[in-house]
Amino acid sequence: MEMVSLEEKVDIDSDEEIPFSGSQTTNKINSVNFGPAHILAHPKFSASWVLRKVNRVSVLRSIYIVLIRARINFLLPFGPIAVILHYLTDKHGLVFFFSLIGITPLAERLGYATEQLAFYTGPTVGGLLNATFGNATEMIISMYALNNGMIRVVQQSLLGSILSNMLLVLGCAFFCGGIVHHHKVQNFNKATALVNSGLLLMAVMGILFPAVLQFTHTEVHKGKSEIALSRFSSCIMLIAYASYLFFQLKSQNNLYSSLDEVRENNEEASDDDEVPEITLWEAITWLLILTLWISVLSGYLVDAIQGASDSMNMPVSFISVILLPIVGNAAEHASAIMFAMKDKLDITLGVAIGSSTQISMFVIPFCVIVGWIMGKPMDLNFQLFETATLFITVLVVAFMLQEGQSNYFKGLMLILCYLIVAASFFVHIDPTKDDD
Questions:
Q1: Distance (Å, rounded) from C-alpha 350 to C-alpha 178?
Q2: Residue 129 phi, psi (nearest 5)
Q3: Burial 280-293 (b: 16+ CB within 10 A, else e)
């Protein structure tokens, strides 16, 4: 009886290991004939071997899914090529061009990794994480430029990032989502959109007053009141953004829960195919890796701006406000369109509008505070032309979002508005003489 039970135990263990190795099964059966000591020792070795094998297969599968499977990944080699050209040649135009192309697949993969993470965190937190990882590039570029005293590049790139997110990214997402789902009206959480619109208007207020103060020459202490007001307003804006995060994620989570969460609870049967392809920690790891590589390429992109401006005969301000933010927002652009085409507009708004809110209420004030610590004269005076452009943009987008619905025509209008803004900056001369 002991021999029979022992053989049955071996058969059960061997069945569990069939997917990994047939030879292991044979060894375990043979070990019955040689003695019980082999039986006690062999399962421990087998378990560790299986664990290593599973981990190895999981890592290789994750690399294949993220870096190989997507067709757009054939553009990945352009990133290392841009780095090599930066050190071997003086052709800044080529470095700028290859960096631009190299960031594109990384941005798309960043959106994919965030979508995978959203399966574990939910749409609201997923949109916030996407906005955060998308804006990591802008923050690193801003710190790099701020440390080198490039105040106007910091201001213009952050302003352009807000304009790009609110008009181009959101417009393309609404347009593509409306085309794919032309048979119905796409809905999103109007309450969350209105809260973000209010925060954006508050950011416009904080940016507007220093510009008006300088333009009207009504400072109490010329050259000092403007910076002092900017630093005070930045502290207030950071407090407001922290309060917003607590309000959205903790205090009023049920009131401002997204429509996507409601759909997932009511339509579980239709979501059988919507399962994560990578694990939670794999998604977090890939987010960190992709963000780091995007930030590295963005650094080379910034270094090549002046040379690209000379070779393309294009103003630096146009590159800073229009071209550079398009690259920096490539992650938001790809993921927002992807979510809109899957009828997940709450995540789309969390990416596009949430990213604009995060830049205006966190990144810009944070740069002012960091500039204060560094001893750099970074302020909220973005000049009157840029501030007026931001104010009109926030109003236009707020009117588009007040109904809680989207369609391809709204997206087309936002895209056309962005073209008007781009044309305006193409013929605009920066009044600051010592910008860099």
A1: 18
A2: -65, -40
A3: eebbbbbbebbbeb
Query: C-alpha distances in angstroms, 294 versus 80, 137, 283, 342?
Result: 11, 7, 16, 25
List the one residue out of 45, 348, 386 whose CA is nearest residue 193. 348
Spatial distance between the Cα atoms of 156 and 382, rounded to a whole number of angstroms = 8
Q: What average pLDDT does the chain have?
A: 77
CA dihedral over 189, 190, 191, 197, signed as positive or negative: positive
* Contact status, residue 403 vs residue 190, Cβ threshold 8 Å: yes
Instruction: Judge whether 421 and 167 are in contact, CB under 8 Å.
Output: yes
Report the SS3 class of residue 187: strand
CA distances (Å), 221 to each of 206, 340, 382, in order?
Answer: 19, 50, 19
DSSP result, 320-362: IIIIHHHHHTHHHHHHHHHHHHTT-HHHHHHHHHHHHHHIIII
- pLDDT (0 to 100) of residue 326: 77
Own/partner long-range contacts of 245-250 (Cβ < 8 Å, ≥24 apart): 245/128, 247/195, 248/124, 248/128, 248/192, 248/195, 249/124, 249/125, 249/128
Q: In the prediction, which pLDDT does 123 show?
A: 65
pLDDT recorded at residue 79: 87
The total number of residues shown for the chain amounts to 436
